[in-house]
């Protein structure tokens, strides 16, 4: 009888011990970001402020430079989660992939590029782009599609009225503009502000203000990963939501100090001005929920650019369960 009681007590102890170990265990996530940009400030806040660590998550952040490379990294198993434009998930889905990428958390909700001119344009009008030499973005990528959408909105055909060069790789666009004879380019922050400070270029307009709300950049994972790592994904989303709320509640200067380690070669005041621009145009999503209206706007922009391969239903590629769970919606 004593032996049975001893074994029962031992079993309970072991269960409690294993449960405690599980609660304190750390999950490692390899995260591929499509580029390094102040545009992704809430992610860097989540890392630097320890919000992921609070949830028992260790982030291995890799910059994979470009949508195609980032998606290939995700699908091949080189990353667990990717931060990339939602349009890439539509391209993969259209290829009849068996284990396609699902959007489960939104990070940015507007375009993040600014129109930069080589020369000062104090009285800039969109009509000034007509017959100009324009350094464009990757075919089928969100910056290029939004750029075309905005130009057409202002009555300019990007393939007829503008001398458009799309031959430069994403990572080399800033240097190509600086050294080439291009008159205009789309640039993310902080590069746009750095160019303005150096006199290399001048910010004349915002594509984010012109294009409206769209699920521009978000976190996605393969369906199999969401099925196998449900708890980890929910904890990841919870940490992200904490960061989004923190960014919402703090001023640009305070935020800039936190994310400065991710942009060590950039003056913190420039980072702050970049963050202020994004906050002023509501670029940073304040929660991770990707809604259906934004999804439809994305498809409209892709369709206008002639890049929508098929009409993909919202329910097929967007999973809001994790986002709604952490925001209690």
From TrEMBL:
Belongs to the bacterial solute-binding protein SsuA/TauA family. Its main location: periplasm. The keyword tRNA processing does not apply. GO terms for cellular component: periplasmic space. Residues 1-22 form the signal peptide. It is found in: Periplasm. This is ABC transporter substrate-binding protein. Keywords: Signal.
């Amino acid at each position: 009888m004593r032996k049975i009681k001893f074994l029962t007590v031992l079993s309970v102890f072991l269960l409690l011990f294993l449960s405690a170990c599980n609660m304190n265990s750390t999950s490692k996530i390899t995260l591929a970001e499509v580029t390094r940009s102040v545009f992704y400030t809430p992610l860097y806040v989540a890392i630097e402020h320890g919000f992921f660590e609070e949830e028992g998550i260790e982030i291995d952040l890799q910059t994979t430079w470009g949508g195609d490379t980032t998606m290939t990294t995700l699908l091949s198993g080189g990353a667990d989660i990717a931060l990339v434009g939602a349009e890439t998930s539509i391209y993969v889905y259209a290829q009849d992939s068996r284990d396609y990428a699902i959007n489960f958390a939104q990070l940015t909700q507007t375009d993040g590029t600014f129109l930069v001119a080589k020369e000062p344009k104090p009285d800039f009008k969109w009509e000034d782009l007509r017959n100009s030499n324009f350094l464009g973005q990757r075919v089928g990528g969100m910056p290029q599609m939004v750029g075309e959408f905005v130009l057409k909105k202002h009555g300019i055909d990007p393939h007829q009225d503008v001398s458009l060069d799309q031959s430069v790789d994403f990572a080399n666009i800033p240097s190509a503009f600086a050294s080439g004879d291009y008159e205009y380019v789309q640039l993310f922050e902080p590069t746009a502000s750095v160019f303005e400070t150096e006199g290399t270029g001048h910010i004349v307009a915002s594509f984010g203000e012109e294009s409206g709300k769209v699920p521009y950049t978000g976190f996605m994972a393969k369906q199999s990963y969401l099925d196998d790592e449900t708890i980890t994904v929910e904890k990841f989303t919870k940490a992200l939501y904490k960061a989004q709320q923190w960014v919402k509640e703090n001023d640009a200067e305070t935020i800039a100090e936190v994310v400065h380690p991710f942009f060590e070669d950039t003056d913190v005041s420039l980072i702050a001005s970049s963050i202020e621009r994004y906050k002023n145009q509501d670029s940073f999503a304040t929660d991770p929920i990707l809604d259906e209206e934004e999804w439809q706007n994305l498809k409209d922009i892709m369709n206008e650019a002639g890049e929508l391969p098929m009409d993909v239903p919202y329910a097929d590629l967007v999973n809001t369960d994790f986002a709604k769970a952490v925001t209690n919606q």
